[in-house]
Amino acid sequence: MVNDQNAVIKDIEHWEEQLKVPTLEGLDWSAAVKQAEEVNRDEYFCAIYCSGGLFERTHHLMGMQNALINYMEYPEEMAGVLRKIADYKIEYLKLAAKYLKPDIVFYHDDWGTKQNVFLPPRVWRELIKPLHAEIVKTAHDCGIMFMHHADCVCQPLVLDMVEMGIDIWQGVIPQNDIVEIQRITEGKLAMIGGIDGPKIDIENITEEEIRAEVRRAFDTYCPGGRFYPSIANECCFRKWNNDIYLDELASYGRKYAQEHQI
Length: 262
Fold this sequence. Notes:
The chain is an alpha/beta fold. Helix content is 50%, strand content 11%.
């Protein structure tokens, strides 16, 4: 929990004096290289994880409330902070590509809630989008696919996601109109999600109700193509619920693929 006492940036007008960016020079990549070399590339993607994207890192540095206010009242200063974050992400991707040669990056930046995006799209397009596009391009230039995690409503931004070249949107929650998103993106954005995790990760739910929610996602979204049903955060936290979810995901998924010759 970032508050006024522990925030890194306490005064956005003096952010350059407060923000200290760690260096990526001289890091020991040997353990990561060993892990990457152990991945069977014939069977699996080798992925790197990149958390705390542009928007998330800003509110990690100054707190959510202050970040949202600063985006509206101090756009020039926020642009400076975002530039520093983007440069760090870009350098990290280049180094990861050099040492690990990953197939894909799992990049994390939640842009909204279950109701809407955090920032007005105009502000997001002005401050976040150009720098995020640079990050995506860096990944592609390094031969890395770009999977963007955002388990929230991003519907107002999906055409921008296509324009930026995002390959996969992971974490698509059903509070988005997924069928409409599939229509307007015309198959240009692969998506993972659609199963309502909080709906089935509760007590006093029946096995059939869990299985029905999994089947609903397959039947509703897979006909649109390039859709891979999943819970946005990949699992239920209750073991009994999760076991049933995973079983239905595998069994019904196999049945669906066979019947539709996927």
